[in-house]
């Protein structure tokens, strides 16, 4: 089990580490008006989403380079991202970083989101004094991305295709053979963090999502699968594929769907 999802205590122990950069992906007004973790830099979610990026909703390599350089993020920094939505927006930031070559072992989600910190620890307002860097995106060591053709190839294979949307969306139309596990099923509503490891493993196993199988994730626009992708990596799954185009691309290209 990796430390992809980390506690507020884990973060607190590393706030003074110059190689650790804490990134707040909430809206800019929340960062400024509500407060943020000490020393955290702001990279709002809407700044790294695009409909004209490299693939799907990725922002594009030039945009990513500019955002992280301006925020003072180093190419080799350890990154901790958080939001106030159970970690789903933070997960999208971290998966984007991985797809642009950041070391996956250095990417972490604050488990329990902003509230896990703000309930018991001091926050700040105003941006910290941060020196810009020259962030250099690269290629991932092993890309999890799968394209439209790759999904088609796996429809009738042993790959378990996972729809991470809610049950109503799934019933309205999903990829043939896909199983449904709403990403929020893995989150504790009270703590806003992950459910206990054994409970998460049981939910996944009941849906046939086991570490010995290739797993392919999709949603609508690759936001929700980002969270599930990191959960699976946190649990030690090694063969996880990420359909960046998700159902938006699938339906635009007349991919087959079934409804219930």
TrEMBL record:
It is an enzyme of class 2 (transferase). Keywords: Repeat, Transferase. Residues 119-128 have a biased composition (Basic and acidic residues). The keyword Repeat applies. The keyword Transferase applies. Gene3D superfamilies: Rhodanese-like domain. This is Sulfurtransferase.
């Amino acid at each position: 089990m990796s430390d992809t999802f980390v506690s507020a205590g884990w973060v607190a122990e590393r706030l003074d580490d110059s190689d650790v950069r804490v990134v707040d992906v909430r809206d800019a007004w929340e960062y400024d008006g509500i407060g943020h973790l000490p020393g955290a830099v702001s990279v709002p979610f809407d700044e790294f989403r695009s409909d004209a990026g490299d693939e799907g909703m990725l922002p594009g390599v030039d945009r990513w380079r500019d955002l992280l350089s301006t925020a003072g993020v180093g190419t080799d920094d350890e990154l901790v991202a958080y939001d106030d939505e159970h970690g789903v927006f933070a997960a999208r930031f971290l998966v984007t970083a991985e797809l642009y070559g950041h070391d996956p072992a250095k990417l972490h989600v604050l488990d329990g989101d902003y509230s896990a910190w703000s309930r018991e620890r001091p926050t700040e307002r105003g941006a910290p004094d941060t020196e810009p860097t020259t962030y250099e995106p690269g290629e991932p060591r092993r890309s999890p991305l799968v394209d439209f053709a790759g999904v088609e190839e796996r429809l009738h294979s042993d790959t378990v295709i996972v729809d991470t949307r809610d049950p109503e969306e799934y019933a309205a139309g999903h990829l043939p053979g896909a199983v449904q596990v709403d990403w929020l099923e893995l989150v504790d509503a009270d703590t806003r963090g992950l459910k206990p490891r054994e409970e998460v493993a049981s939910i996944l196993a009941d849906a046939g999502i086991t570490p010995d199988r290739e797993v392919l994730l999709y949603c609508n626009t690759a936001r929700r699968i980002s969270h599930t992708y990191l959960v699976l990596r946190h649990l030690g799954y090694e063969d996880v594929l990420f359909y960046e185009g998700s159902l938006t691309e699938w339906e635009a290209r007349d991919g087959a769907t079934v409804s219930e």
